[in-house]
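Example record used in the benchmark description.
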Amino acid sequence: MGAQTAVVTGANSGIGRATTLAFAQAGYHVFGTVRGLEKADKLLAKATSLSLADRITLVEMDVADSASVTKGFAQIYAATNQVNVLVNNAGVGGNAVTEECPVDTYTEVFNINHNGSVRCIQAVLPQMRKRGSGAIVNVSSVVGKITAIAQSPYYVSKWAVEGMSEGLAHEVAPFGIRVAIVEPGITRSSIFSKNIDAPNQSGAYDAHYRRLFSFYAAGITNATPAEEAAATILEAATTSSPRLRWHCSWGASELLAARAAMTDEEWVSFGRHLDDEAYYDEFVARFNLDIRPQQ
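Model output (structure tokens):
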């Protein structure tokens, strides 16, 4: 197979589907991984309509399972002797405050979002090192840099992805391998419809969950098309001016810049609001994003 190749995990929907198509349009042969081949109907239909179907190979793979990743990459390496780009996109959300989040939920979300990326990285690095080139793009989130309220298992996993990626970039720099972290804000995706649980067992955290879902509602209204995130991922992998961190999509620039400008003490103080309106007022003042419920 002569074309440059890319592996995109979680290719069946949202950012993964858009990224698979973007790399195919850029001339790559893309191995799109999905947990079940039957889940990829929309990807295949879109690829066919764009005359890109011959540049996409579906691979059944569950990044949460080491044996499945080993089997999936064996299939990929049977078709090509090199992976030029790996995009670790597969992931899940998770709502909960720390007190009420089952440890099993932390384990499940971390295993997919962090360990799943590591499994795929370990599968591509030996041939990238031998070749002296390659790019690894890890899709994090704006919550990899700011602890979004009542999403503890999700932001814990994404902070881990950030730390792993930063260390990885340092580790593989001598081998000519590029690492990029992409931090999307709110992107049009099915993740919202799958991420509606709120284990509010005690009732003590009613305000936290109200504010979380107000943020979601504002995000869904303003969500950026997945194609914008896909374009950022493609640029991060191919630009002649590489950098470690990239952000895109609704709210990302505002949230990241404002949190970086806050002291840790100001962040903690922001959480002390008992009144929702006061919380929403400070949110607007600090982040220039209005998340109060619309009447």
